[in-house]
Specification:
The complex is a heterodimer of chains A (about 400) and B (about 230).
Chain A: H1 2-16, H2 18-55, E1 60-65, H3 70-76, H4 85-94, E2 99-106, E3 110-112, E4 115-117, E5 120-124, H5 127-131, E6 136-139, H6 144-148, E7 153-156, H7 158-165, E8 174-177, E9 180-188, E10 193-194, E11 197-198, E12 202-206, H8 207-215, E13 222-226, H9 233-247, E14 254-258, H10 259-302, H11 304-312, H12 317-357, H13 370-396, H14 400-404
Parallel strand pairs in A: 5-12, 7-9
Antiparallel strand pairs in A: 1-13, 1-14, 2-5, 2-13, 3-4, 3-8, 6-9, 7-12, 8-9, 10-11
Chain B: E1 3-14, E2 17-29, E3 34-38, H1 45-52, E4 60-65, E5 68-69, H2 75-85, E6 86-89, H3 101-112, H4 116-129, H5 145-156, E7 163-167, H6 175-190, E8 194-199, H7 202-205, E9 210-215, E10 218-222, H8 223-228
Parallel strand pairs in B: 3-8, 3-9, 6-7, 7-8
Antiparallel strand pairs in B: 1-2, 1-4, 4-5, 9-10
Classes of the chains: A alpha+beta (about 400), B alpha/beta (about 230).
Chain lengths: ~400, ~230
């Protein structure tokens, strides 16, 4: 009964001084809105990254050479030189179900009809296309005969094709990698930039060509292994790792990671973002809370005589405390609700801006989660109570006789 | 006896200076009395009213109100007594400016937990009694000083208090409005209401049934005491 009257009272007082109330509320609105916007954008970013990574094929295991310390290099001297093409053949022989894709990365400049292009030349095998879910748009990808005969054929990424051959069709044309002539046999579909790697500026040549015509040895940079069934992943990873260590004369010089582990790493990165951006937003919210405290202190001082009178006619200290606390809570609750609405609009608006300004961000969108809204809102209410408590306590502790005669 | 002060002293500390506002004051007020406490400014009469009204506690001495030793009661019980048993009328009216006349009169009943409808009903009744029923929905600032003071009196009567304590009730009014208020007090007195009025004005004090003179924190004259036993001045 009395509480209802106090809430009504608080609402009247707040609407009685609308400018002051809305300015105070603005702090809370900005705080809550920024929490929701930040979280929604990070959330959207995560979803987008995970989707992009999964677009690059699923159920994948990656194997690459460990970076060794000087100490380790000295220790393993003459025992192992890391991943070799033989390893691929050995894994294929042991696990016929798996698609094993060798990868060699070369650093050569590419020339065609007077144009230069600094792309990423990758030596790989025909299985690459299926494993990475990345297929040619025109022409063909690498064939087993290309591998067997160390053919000088190349498949271009979209961007590589545009840079080297402009609008004309590159199929059947020649280009030079380093000082060797290659024939273009295909152009890949558009893929975009995923997790920092631009797939459209890649050029694919047969792995054997890369090893024997350029490197002069059969070292590989990494392997991509496609596992048919997700349940097998763990077991396959362990077995492949063991096989490689055994083949490398007992030296553990490779890393084996599943795509899931990469996704987890992405998750961790995202969490860092979430905490940093969320922290910034929370600071905004706390600043809003300080605004509430500031205004409530002014209000208490302004209404000292009113407090004295209320005490004289029968308000207990609890009544006074509640009256002022209700005011700050009303500010934060109303501010919180408005902040949520502003936050949703801002999140989607900002999401669109990011989607349009980021390469390959077309499928990017903010994700407003109910849990984030709930957290932001309850945080606002807690801030309102926390920062409203001190002024309210101050009001409730006034001496009635002195308060009545306050000038 | 409704109110009985026994050797009540009040000391204020202002920084390191101690001010003796009341010096062993003893006075008793019966139900139905209309008492004027008269004294020059700085004599301690406001302090006396604060103690009588349970707005502050004596530094020493006992204060009995309606058979209860209130001088040592906790805050909430003093609040309860102020709410139910005491009605205040102030020189500056002390009406809440953003509330209507009606809401101002309802205020003590709100804190007493009276249901809203009953509050309304009683407040309108009281406003009728002081002749301001037609102003119920006005804001205090739209009323004259005399009218505002009548609203304050209606508010003081809201919870049918045992006593009305008035602090210079005519101090901010012209003499005609002042007389109106004093007339209202007379009517209340005649209906049996206990009234204690503080004033510095001898002429206004004359209208009360009994006068208690105060100077330098001591009672220097009391009509009733002088009727019973002379007090050395």
């Amino acid at each position: 009964m009395i509480l209802a009257a106090l809430i009504l009272e608080a609402l009247k007082n707040l609407t009685g001084n609308l400018l002051r109330t809305s300015l105070t509320m603005l702090g809370v609105i900005i705080g809550v809105a920024s929490v929701i916007t930040m979280v929604a954008i990070v959330e959207g970013g995560q979803l987008w990254l995970v989707r992009s990574i999964e677009r690059l094929g699923t159920n994948l295991v990656f194997v690459w050479n460990k970076t060794l310390t000087a100490e380790e290099r000295r220790l393993y001297e003459g025992r192992s030189i890391g991943l070799r093409y033989d390893d691929v053949l050995a894994i294929r022989a042991r696990f016929p179900d798996l698609q094993v894709v060798p990868v060699v990365e070369l650093d050569y400049s590419v020339k065609a009809a007077g144009r230069h292009f600094k792309g990423r030349v990758t030596g790989t095998s025909p299985e690459y296309a299926d494993a990475r879910n990345f297929h040619p748009a025109v022409g063909r990808f690498l064939l087993p005969t290309d591998i067997a005969e160390w053919k000088r054929v190349v498949v271009l990424g979209q961007e590589a094709a545009e840079k080297l051959f402009d609008q004309t069709s590159p199929l059947g044309k020649e280009l030079k990698i380093g000082n060797q002539r290659f024939t273009v046999v295909g152009v890949m579909e558009k893929k975009g930039t995923i997790y920092g790697a631009n797939y459209d500026e890649m050029l694919f040549i047969p792995v054997t060509t890369a090893m024997r015509r350029f490197q002069g040895n059969d070292k590989l940079d990494s392997l991509i292994i496609h596992v048919p069934r997700r349940e097998q992943m763990e077991a396959i990873m362990a077995q492949v790792h063991a096989l490689l260590v055994q083949r490398h004369d007992g030296v553990d010089d490779v890393r084996v990671r599943s795509q899931g582990e990469f996704l987890k790493a992405v998750d961790r990165t995202i969490w860092t973002f979430r905490i940093v951006l969320g922290g910034v937003a929370v600071v905004a919210l706390v600043v809003g809370g300080i605004g509430i405290m500031n205004i409530m202190l002014v209000t208490v001082t302004e209404r000292t005589r009113e407090i004295g009178l209320r005490m004289a006619v029968g308000a207990t200290r609890r009544h006074i405390l509640l009256q002022f606390l209700v005011e700050s809570v009303v500010i934060s609750v109303v501010g919180g609700v408005i902040g949520m609405m502003v936050g949703i609009v801002a999140a989607y608006g900002f999401g669109d801006v990011v989607a349009q300004s980021m390469p390959g961000g077309g499928e990017w969108g903010a994700v407003v989660q109910p849990s984030a809204m709930l957290i932001a809102f309850s945080f606002a209410v807690i801030v309102g109570i926390f920062f409203g408590l001190y002024p309210a306590l101050k009001a409730s502790k006034l001496d009635p006789a002195e308060a009545l005669r306050y000038q | 006896m409704l109110m009985n002060l026994i050797k009540v002293s009040k000391i204020y500390r202002i920084g390191h200076v101690e001010v003796l506002a009341l010096n062993e004051v003893s006075v008793g007020i019966d139900r139905g009395e209309f008492v004027a406490i008269v004294g020059p400014s700085g004599s301690g009469k406001t302090t006396l009213l604060d103690i009588l009204g349970c707005l502050s506690r004596p530094t020493s001495g006992d204060y009995w109100f309606d058979g209860k030793l209130v001088s040592r009661l906790p805050d909430d019980e003093l609040t309860y007594i102020r709410n139910r048993k005491i009605g205040f009328v102030f020189q500056t009216f002390q009406l809440l400016p953003r509330k209507t006349v009606l809401e101002n009169v309802q205020l003590p009943m709100l804190y007493a937990g009276v249901p809203w409808k009953a509050q309304r009903h009683r407040a309108l009744q009281l406003l009728r009694d002081v002749g301001l029923e037609d102003r119920a929905h006005h804001l205090p600032t739209q009323l004259s000083g005399g009218q505002q003071q009548r609203v304050a009196i209606a508010r003081a009567l809201a919870n049918t208090p045992d006593v009305i304590l008035a602090d210079e009730p005519t101090g901010n009014l012209d003499s005609r409005s002042g007389q109106d208020i004093l007339g209202l007090f007379q009517r209340l007195h005649e209906s049996g209401q206990t009234l204690v009025m503080i004033t510095h004005d001898q002429q206004i004090a004359e209208q009360a049934q009994r006068r208690v003179m105060i100077a330098d924190g001591r009672i220097v004259a009391d009509d009733r005491a002088s009727q019973q036993a002379p007090v050395p001045v």
